[in-house]
Amino acid sequence: LTLQKIDAISPTVLSTEEAVHGIGGLKQMYQFHFAESLVLEYIAMNMDDPLLKIPEIRKALVLAIDRNEMVRLLFGGSVEENTLSYPQKHFAFHGTMAKVNNYHPEVANSLIETAGFRKKDSFGYRMNERGQKLEFTMMSTSHRSIRQEIEQFIQMSWQKIGVKLDIQNQHERDFLEVTLPKRKFPHFALL
Questions:
Q1: Structure-derived torsion over alpha carbons of residues 166, 172, 174, 179, reported in degrees to the nearest 10
Q2: Is the Cβ–Cβ distance between 1 and 31 less than 8 Å?
Q3: Which of 22, 64, 85 is nearest to 157 (CA)?
């Protein structure tokens, strides 16, 4: 790259955030072109949690995230939102995959109320009649700034519907070798 003689580079050399946000002066010196690939970020849920066993809560959380806006803001439109269960280049993809729900915060609010979380505390977070709050924790690796930005976007999205999200990130090795395999994430893991 420093000799300015390379006209193509493997997608494994630069991370998404390096290509999107630029590395030093590289973004001014080179044009970056993105191709569809299997690189994706996804959220794993710990279905052992009683709140996440409630279908209305799970659906509300999905409907409260404006994924198009997240792609626009965080990735500058250089990547595409995946609207199916798997990306088209994934080995398990087939043409009849179910579409992922779109952004509908009003429906998300209605589902949360249907699940019994009608009250709000002094901070605007939802709670049920017993005073139990809709509060979750998301964990990921601490070295990927784009994941932290995704977490913050989701945090702000869920706050709009009265759901509190705490973020706890770990060193990559601890997260991938201990937390994930032993299911030590309380609610969500961003991968």
A1: 50
A2: no
A3: 64
